[in-house]
Amino acid sequence: MTSTTHYPAMLTDSMLETIINTLAEQHYCVIDQFLPASLTQSLRTIALDQQEQGLMHQAGTSQSAVSNPRLRGDQIAWLEPSDPHAAIQNYLALLVEVQQAVNRQLMMGLDSFETHFAIYPAGSSGYATHIDQFRQHRAQATPGARTLTSIIYLNNDWPTEAGGALRLYLDEHAQTPSRNASHIDILPTAGRLVLFLSARFWHEVLPASLPRISVTGWFKTR
User: Fold this and answer.
1) Of the candidates 3, 88, 106, 96, which has an alpha carbon nearest to the alpha carbon of residue 46?
2) Which of 6, 64, 154, 186 is most buried, by the most CB atoms less than 10 A from its CB?
3) Among 88, 77, 2, which residue's Cα sits nearest to residue 40?
4) pLDDT, tens digit, for every residue of 96-113?
5) Which residue, among 184, 114, 192, 121, has the nearest Cα to 153 in the 3D structure?
6) How far is 29 from 49, CA to CA, in rounded Å?
7) CA dist 111 to 19, 28, 98, 125, 128, Å?
8) pLDDT grade, residue 134 (50/70/90)?
């Protein structure tokens, strides 16, 4: 008999409450064990399979998506709502729950979600300091603008010495912050969720000595 892996259909009330309260207070949150280990491992396997099959491409920077490995070293593959993998469907369902809770409690007007796998090969350059909302969207409210960034890490037993942290700059900056500006470093530990306001937080991905895998997405406004 073939065994079937079952994933949770919904998040716990306590987890959703933590997300809402922390986002309201500090505009970002970090939730460990957001995904169960089985779902994390399944998503990791799919991402690595897509890389092995040559289905990933070098990510670009700026709205024109021009590739520059010195600024951004990851390979990506976009996820589609119609993807037949059960793990991807469960991941998308969990993020829908987050979207509904945020809209209900914080009235953010999130309407859609786009997401991709990202793999930084060992020794790649990471991702230079940037912000996730395009400049013209920050200047005035724009339908379809990236509003809330979501990152879930898929790296088993990630050692601190491997690097690869997400460096999140905490203060607001009109321009790229200096490296010694106030920040926190968030290791890409398996199952960990990071959420932050896309137009608020400058951030970067530090270089890593091991392959670094995540599934990254953006909730967009109506």
Assistant:
1) 88
2) 154
3) 88
4) 999 999 999 999 999 999
5) 192
6) 30
7) 18, 19, 12, 33, 28
8) low
